[in-house]
Amino acid sequence: MNEQANNYSETQYNYTFVFLYVIFIALTGMAIFVAMLNRENSGLAIMLLATLLLLSFFMYMVGKMKVEVTEKELLISMGFNFNTNEFLLHQIDAKSLQIEKLPWWFGFGNKQGSGNRTLFRIGFRPCISFQLKHNNERYYVSSSKTEALLSSLQKKLN
To answer: Which of 100, 102, 127, 133 pairs with 143 at a CA distance of 20 to 30 A?
Structure first.
């Protein structure tokens, strides 16, 4: 049996943030156009441009998430994949794996939460939660294919 076929990979998008990203990029293009046409007020256009680029970057960073289960690790990356979080499968406590529905106020993104929680979430989707064998921290990974992610992790851990 091909072990590669058992690997899991999913790229998720929060379409609200992706839509806002496209809007901000369009506004950025208009700000560049205005700065080129009106040289006297180009300082304001440049400030607007910098703000829009920063907002666009933020929208993309919390609007895309990739989750992969390979032979040896669980990989989670958000946005431009600058920072990939790696969890070695042999360090994950198999008994701690479960599906949880988190409340909306937990928010989005890759962040530390109160009570030893780390969140990787881009939408109001159910999450796979787990703990590592060497610490008490609980990790939450949102997925639109929660059952498939859980099944893949359980197969790799058993």
So the answer is: 133
